[in-house]
Amino acid sequence: YGEFNQKIDYVFKVVLIGDSAVGKSQLLARFARNEFSIDSKATIGVEFQTRTLNIDQKTIKAQIWDTAGQERYRAVTSAYYRGAVGAMLVYDITKRQSFDHVARWLEELRSHADRNIVIMLIGNKSDLGSLRAVPTEDAKEFAQRENLFFMETSALEATNVESAFMTVLSDIYRITS
Ligand code: GDP
Ligand code: MG
């Protein structure tokens, strides 16, 4: 995870969106720093975190943007979406409402972001299987219909987090290069 003084070939901006408390900030902490904190406070001040990685022998700086508690409908500004080439649209598999709002987030994303933006639908908190309120199949169907990637993740257990981000970044790279 160390960032060396190396030549950066590409910078990819990826935004995290979705209802409050679904685990966006913890997914970012897991991906950028391999950390998780149980009582994560609302992210204040920090706009994005970066992680430098290699794809196809190119050095890519992933710049991942996190909402600072502006998840109320339409409160995320267009500056947040500007220049984004990827998006992680997150819901909580134990909160039906957070999944019901996904269509709204998608609409907002598509009205602000670039037409070719790569989108991953993420059902987070897969470690809480006994409290599941959103069947995997429902999300899978939605993602297929809307042409999104889809994965269930656990930021807590570090399940599929790396894979979700790498899938999006690789697809962005494929489109860009
Ligand atoms: P955000 O508002 O979307 O940024 O959500 P946070 O990242 O702040 O997480 C909200 C709450 O859910 C916090 O109490 C986290 O510890 C918890 N949380 C986040 N990810 C997971 C996960 O994968 N599993 C479980 N069990 N809890 C999680
Ligand atoms: Mg947050």
From TrEMBL:
It is a lipid-anchor. Keywords: GTP-binding, Lipoprotein, Membrane, Nucleotide-binding, Prenylation. One of its GO terms (cellular component) is endomembrane system. Transmembrane segments: none annotated. It is found in: Endomembrane system. Belongs to the small GTPase superfamily. Rab family. GO terms for molecular function: GTP binding; GTPase activity. This is Ras-related protein RGP1-like. Signal peptide: none annotated.
